[in-house]
Amino acid sequence: MPPSPFEPTDPPDNSGMRKGLTSYGDQGFSLFLRKAFIKGAGFTDAALDRPVVGITNTGSAYNPCHGNAPQLIEAVKRGVMLAGGLPMDFPTISIHESFAAPTSMFLRNLMSMDTEELVRAQPMDAVVLIGGCDKTVPAQLMGAASAGIPSIQLITGSMLTGSHRGERVGACTDCRRYWARYRADEIDVEETVDVNNQLVASVGTCSVMGTASTMACIAEALGMTMTGGASPPAVTADRIRIAEQTGAQAVQMARDRLTIDKVLTPAAFENAMRVLLAIGGSTNGIVHLTAIAGRMGLEIDLAALDRMGRDTPVLLDLKPSGQHYMEDFHAAGGMATLLRELKPLLKLDAMTVTGRTLGEEIERAGPGFKQDVVRSIANPIYAQGGMAVLRGNLAPGGAIIKQSAADPKLMEHEGRAVVFEDIEDLATRIDSDDLDVTAQDMLVLKNIGPKGAPGMPEAGYIPIPRKLARAGVKDIVRISDGRMSGTAFGTIVLHVTPESAIGGPLAYVQNGDRIRLSVANREVALLVSDEELARRAKASPVVEPTAERGYRKLFLQSVMQADKGVDFDFLRAAKMVDKVPRKG
Ligand code: FES
Ligand code: MG
Predict the structure, then answer these.
(1) Which ligand is nearest to the CA of 96?
(2) What Pfam families is this protein classified in (predicted)?
């Protein structure tokens, strides 16, 4: 009698369809059942006897940024099968920026848990993570980091640009620009209707250096994508080819047991920080990087990020810091062009999902060519990195400013605080003709931090009060504990930590207080004495928000501050084992 194909093997095999067999009772029966059920879908034993590659399907009618998911999955499957593996796609949560209330960030950790647990629960030897819209890639990398198996990121890719009355437009820096023009009475209702058809010209992610593009570049810098995986637009043949290669490489990673911990090392995160600074990336990028690193037991040192920013110039000429769009970056050679330029600042021995180091990948990409999207270090867009880390008595745990997108005239500024207690207060009063505000003031918005709103919404891009907008004011200093979209611009201080909802100093700012912002000194200071702040805290103590039930309750109980990546405390690695960058 031949041996049973369902019994445990000697030595034990925990791969393919045998992976994670339930151990209560009878393992042989467990495999017997598993195979019986999957055969219900028409599989043969020959198909099941291969390395299994899971593919996350994050397509959703609510998510046009992932509108090419069906084509990508088909191409990944082709790649997996060409390399001798068995592709198995499965759904996870999908999050789109505009369709997730109260804010997509509220759901990021939920998506990371969904991803982690489904990768862990189902039999797979490697996983292809298909993500693109802002929160999806960080959620997937967080989940995969915790699940620990060989993992490779596939980006959905950017949307095409559109054209409106002779002008090239793309989401969503131009969405903001046109809306601001409408608020200032510079364009009429008909024009808003026209441009609305052009801002998102195809499926795919926002076409500027917003959070989606930032995370795509970061994923490649971390070594988590195929080389060249960050930049191809969603609807291109290059994007589909990358998908096929990604599937094939996933099989190779399964065979080589190239687990995610071999890729997500301190060196990889250091490279990602350099790239974040050099692309003029979204401020959200640092929150997400911190959260991903936290899953690996790595602590991102914000002070070091600031130091790195002083010798990492912005090289990428993309909106909102510059003028081009993602498709131009792709035509200019994509990340290879940027990484080649940044080479002296990178840790070239960092391992990537290809099994080669980042340095080897840069070499393989060949020589550069003349283009005007990625500048040279000698001729940068902006001499320092895209963002600076501020401290001071208003933000003892730090705050962030995207200096490359700020007005240089406002970066050294002292002014009077005009305070809004929360988003509702802002909505009621910001456009009032009675609002006591001048262009020299500083708008302060409270209660939009991780616990405040909750979910740290992108409300830190406080609109210019209508009466100032009509008077032609284009920028004003704004300060909050929230985030802002990577597609936004202005002199905007974000991520003030600790947040006001848990009693951070921001909670006690009052109308008329003086605030000093000095980006040169990396300072954001409330010019009010400690005694007075203590008196205010005692007079009206902050009551932390709570919820009765459900995910919101879990969120409010567990969410950490911006300097810990806004992850849940119980999802972070049990122990922090190293810092990024490493000392010495
Ligand atoms: Fe999905 Fe901008 S809305 S990337
Ligand atoms: Mg965004």
Answers:
(1) 1
(2) ILV_EDD_C (PF24877), ILVD_EDD_N (PF00920)
Proximal ligand: closest to the CA of 103: 2
For residue 172, the model assigns a pLDDT of 86
Cα 399 to middle of ligand 2, angstroms: 19
Q: Which two tokens stand for residue 16?
A: 């393919």
Q: What token pair was written down for 274?
A: 């350099």
CA 209 / ligand 1 centre spacing (Å): 11
Report which ligand 1 atom has the smallest distance to the Cα of 132.
4
For the range 523-529, what are the long-range contacts, defined as Cβ-Cβ under 8 Å and sequence gap of 24 or more?
523/390, 523/391, 523/392, 524/390, 524/391, 524/392, 524/394, 524/395, 524/399, 524/479, 524/493, 524/496, 525/392, 525/393, 525/394, 526/392, 526/393, 526/394, 527/414
The amino acid that residue 94 corresponds to is: S
> Can you state the angle between helices 335-342 and 211-221, rounded to 10 degrees?
60
Which residue has the CA at smallest separation from atom 1 of ligand 1? 133
187 contacts 164 by C-beta, under 8 angstroms: no
pLDDT score recorded for residue 321: 80
Q: Report the residue among 136, 205, 483 best suited for mutation to probe ligand 1: largest number of ligand atoms under 8 A from its CB.
A: 205
How remote is the CA of residue 557 from the centroid of ligand 2, in Å?
26
CA 337, 341, 345, 351 torsion-angle sign: positive
Low-confidence ranges of the chain (pLDDT < 70): 23, 584
pLDDT number for residue 420: 98
The answer to whether the CB of 450 falls within 8 A of the CB of 483 is: no
Please name the residue whose Cα sits nearest to atom 3 of ligand 1.
97
> Ligand 1: which of 105, 130, 134, 156 to mutate, judged by most atoms within 8 Å of the beta carbon?
134
* 489 CA to centre of ligand 2 in angstroms: 12
Judged by DSSP in three states, 493 sits in strand
Task: Give the pLDDT confidence score for residue 583 in this predicted structure.
Answer: 76
Question: 99-120, pLDDT tens digit by residue?
Answer: 999 999 999 999 999 999 999 9
Q: Which domains does the chain have, with CATH numbers?
A: 1-7+20-49 (no CATH), 162-196 (no CATH), 388-545 (3.50.30.80)
- Rounded to the nearest angstrom, the distance between the alpha carbon of 83 and the centre of ligand 2 is 36
Residue 25 pLDDT: 74
527's CB contacts (< 8 A; 6+ apart) are 414, 513, 514, 515, 516
Considering only the C-alpha atoms of the chain, give the largest distance between any 2 of them, rounded to a whole number of Å. 91
Task: Report pLDDT for 582.
Answer: 87
Residue at token pair 């004003």 = 476
Q: What is the pLDDT of residue 584?
A: 57
Shortest-distance ligand to the CA of residue 159: 1
Using CB atoms within 10 Å of the CB of residue 307, give its burial: 0 to 12 exposed, 13 to 18 middle, 19+ buried.
middle
